[in-house]
Request: fold
Amino acid sequence: MKVFCPDCGARTELAPQKWRCRCGGAWEPEEQHEFDPALIDASDTSVWRYRRMYDLDFDAPVARLGAGGTPLLPVVLGGRQVLVKVEYLAPTSSFKDRGTEVMINLLAHQGVTHVADDSSGNAGASVAAYAARAGMRAEIYVPAHASPAKQAQIAVYGAEVRPIPGPRQNAKRAALEAAERGVVLASHAYHPAFLLGQQSVAWEVWEQLGRRAPDWYVVPVGQGVHLLGVWLGFRRLRSAGWIERLPRLAAVQARLLAPLCQALEQGLDTVPAVEPTTPSLAEGLAIADPVRGRRLLQAVRETNGLCIAVEEEAIRTAQRELARHGFYVEPTSATAVAALPTVMELADPGETIVVPLTGSGLKGTPALPG
Reply:
């Protein structure tokens, strides 16, 4: 798999131990093939429907759980119809499975048998499940205050759960230390194949809308891999001439920890780390220093998008409102719906708004530290 570093421009062939660039930047997949609908596998409804667009070094995945193929459903929220992409209908009940399914299959093809990741829960559960499917050993470093339900989910797949006291970034440091000891980092934040899998959501939405792009895509942002996958996926559609313009990306963060929003407000080209204070209900967004900060800023600006910081009570209200429509999501996922009043003020009446529902409410409410 050929990759490049958007920070310094370096290019190389990806290897398991070269999980990031020498400059510290995160690799991205080099675009090899123009998006061609004729290459879509109509017999497959999973992320592998688009396997010919990934340009990977293997023909068939060895560890499948069926990620992808989620419904796009209309729902009236705030007096206006929006379309929700029900991403929590995934093998481990979160959107992370798209990226993990592609990433773990690539690592398996490369002969990897022992992986590690850091996570507040959803990515860890996803890596643990796919590692089990691939016959790999997995170590998952989680904040000690992460949802007990998510920690239990990680453990049930046979992964080694390593709770790390203190703020979220301590778990990241522990995972990086494991990588220095030789464990392969299967990181949703760093691995370029994870972004390949996330691009599939853009292509699914495009197909579900009759081969057109929505006008708005409203998404929660922690590390921002969903936003970047959507951005890269729609970019490929545009470069191939299948859409005229990209959807406006509305990144959503909890006001208690909103480094991307702050960087955009200040007109910065990087996303400086923000010191966490009071924990948010949206534990999946508790990323003080996103790995791909520069690219997140580029994606929002290139699409004439914005970043919206939402209050805790608005998150609770959005979670309850979605449940009354039959969608039970975790607080992290509800942040996108909490931002809809702002988006609706900016959107024209006839514009299409898509909101991914990224994680199931069955994963539990976080046990917040005192």
Observations:
- Residues 185 and 358 are 23 Å apart (CA to CA).
- Residues 366-370 have pLDDT under 50 and may be disordered.
